[in-house]
Structure formats: C-alpha cells, structure tokens
Amino acid sequence: MEDLKQKMTLDSLQDELNGAFLYEVLAQAEKDERLAEVYQRMATVEHKHAEKWTAKLLAEGISIPKFKPNWRTRTLSWAARRFGVNAVLPTITSMEQKDSRKYANTPDAAEMSADELSHSRLLKQVTKSMPGGLEGGFLARLEGRHRASGGNALRAAVLGANDGLVSNLSLVMGVAGAEFQNSTILITGLAGLLAGAFSMALGEWLSVQSSRELYQHQIAIEEAEIASAPEEEAEELALIYEARGMSKEESQKLAKKIFEDPSQALETLSREELNIDPAELGGSAWEAAITSFFLFAIGAIIPVIAFTFLSGMPAVIGSLLISAVGLFIIGTGITLFTGRSILFSGSRQVIFGLLAAVITFGIGRLIGVNIGG
C-alpha cells in the first residue's frame, strides 16, 4: 500500500513537471505577449505543485528521478514550436479538462485541486481569470483564437492518414484475395490512393469554401446591423460580457469603447456573437485541400509499398506487416487526444485495421473463386 502511494506521488510529480514544461513552451511560442504571460503564469503554478510533491518525496526518503518530458509533452511541444500554439491548444484544453479533478480526493491537495480546475477554466476563457480585465481588442483576439482552433490540425492529420491507410489496405487486400497479378494489385492500389486523395481534397475544399462564403455573408449582415443600429448592437455585446461574469458597468464601458471604432466593433461582434474569426474565415480552402490530399496519400501508400518489390503471398504478408506498423503509429498519435496508453491505442488500431483487411481479403478470395469457376 505504501509503495502504491509513493508511485502515485511520483506520477503526480511527473505530471506537474510535464505541465510546466509544456506551458513554458507555449509561452515561448506565443506571439501575443499578453497570452504568453498567461501561459508563463500557468507554468509557474505547475512548478509550485511540483515543489510540493518533491518536498513530500524527500521527507519520505525517496530519491527524485531526473525529469525527462514524456513523449506526449515532447510531441505537443514540437507541434507548438513548428505550427503555433493554435495547433495544440484544443488538445491541451482537453487534457486539462480531463485532469481538472485529479486531486479532488487527494489529502492535503485542496489548493492544487483548485489550481487545476482554474487551469481548465483558464484555457476555455482566459479573460475570466485575469485580474483587472482586458481591453476589448485583446478579449476579441483571445476568444477568436480559442474558437478558431477547434478544428484541431493534429487530429485532422492523424485521422486523414488513418483514412488513407485503412481504406487502401482494404482495397488492396480485396484485390489480392481475388488472386490478380501483382501488377494489377499495384495499379489498383495506386489508383485507390489517387482517387481517395482527390476525393478527400475536393470534399475538404468544398467544405471550407462553403463555410467561408457563409461566414462572409453573416459578417456582411452584422456590418449592416452595426451601421443601422449601433446602440442596440453595443448593448448586445455588453450583455455577452456581462453573461461571462463582468459587472454591468464594466460590460457597458468595454462595449462602448469597442464601438468607438466601427471596424473593431465588427471584428469583435463577429468573434463574440458569430464565433467567426474575420481574418481567417475558417482557413484557406486550398490549403485544406492540399493538406488533405497529402495526408490521405501518405496513409494510402503504406499498403502498396510491399507490392513494389514482392509478389504473391509474400507481398500480401509484407503489406499487412508494414500496414500494422503504420496503424500502430497512428494509434500512438490518437493517444494525444484520448490520453489512453500507447499500447492500448496502438494495438486497438492494428486489430481493427487488420480485421478490415482480412475481411476484404476473404471477400475478394470468394469472388475470385466464383468468377474463376
């Protein structure tokens, strides 16, 4: 029992150090100084938690292992530096929500439990936790950034590659089961790759472009309403801020200040009322299409590789083995969002992916036998 408590304390220490490391990276990667300050303050709190766990361990005569960020922290840190904070913020917010009550039943950890709950709320709406309030421009940018990142580029990357791998693996195995020549299987796999990638790209382009056009129409309506009834729109904005915890006087004062500049008023209302970032409008349709094309293609090429240098059953087995490795890696990526263990998520992904391949191989074999007489 004592060993279990010590292990839990060590795990808590590692969690806090990983959190501090990640928030420090966000503070460094964040271009907005005000947001960077928020992340740095959160890192400081995590360090204070770590110091408490360290003191407890030392008091019990337990040596403190050298800290090394875990793979999830390293991956998110790399993505934040490479793609910006927006790319990882939804994942980190989800992690904080999951961990917000991890100390709820831990003795002598009431203060840390309150801090974790505060972090969860802070990432959802940072302005509520900052003393003195923030000016309207920053408030709008903050809320807009948080909402704009909901698509989660990391999630899209993982799932896009997974779609390509599983769909093309099933296609290739179905054709291989029918005992077609190796060249036929290879051509089919490449055709499936291109067809799926173009389909994904077109679908993504249409989705994003349609959203952009809808957003532009909504913003145009909002602009007309501001021009025709600025007092009513200012009151509506004040009510939004009041609903978020600001006093009536502060809300009206902030809304009045924002409406001194019509362009700022339009930008703020677009973010706060419509949940639209006017600068991005949901992102670039072409960027989304090209990204989807390559993500799908990366996954779809994996089952085809073995058929370029093998044939017959060795090629089938080789394709399954290479695909199993790819599926496990994708499962590992999924743990960024689920928090499950690498072994569990990776193994589950391999089992389901290979099961689909085996089923289509069997169906292909059945069809091939019937066609062949």
Query: Number of helical segments?
Result: 14
> Uncertain spans, ≥5 residues at pLDDT below 50?
126-152
Largest sheet: none
Q: How many beta-strand elements?
A: 0
Q: Report the order of strands and helices.
A: HHHHHHHHHHHHHH
Measured between the Cα atoms of the first and last residue, the distance is 67 Å
Q: Your description of this structure?
A:
By secondary structure, the protein is mostly helical. The protein folds into three domains: 2-130, Ferritin (Up-down Bundle), CATH 1.20.1260; 154-208 and 285-371, no CATH class; 215-272, no CATH class. It is 77% helix and 0% strand. The chain contains 14 helices and no strands. It has helices spanning 2-29, 33-59, 71-83, 89-99, 110-124, 136-148, 153-177, 182-228, 230-243, 248-258, 262-272, 285-301, 312-338, 342-371. Helix 8 (182-228) crosses helix 9. The protein is flat and about 80 Å long. The chain starts with a helix and ends with a helix. Mean pLDDT is 80; it is low at 126-152.
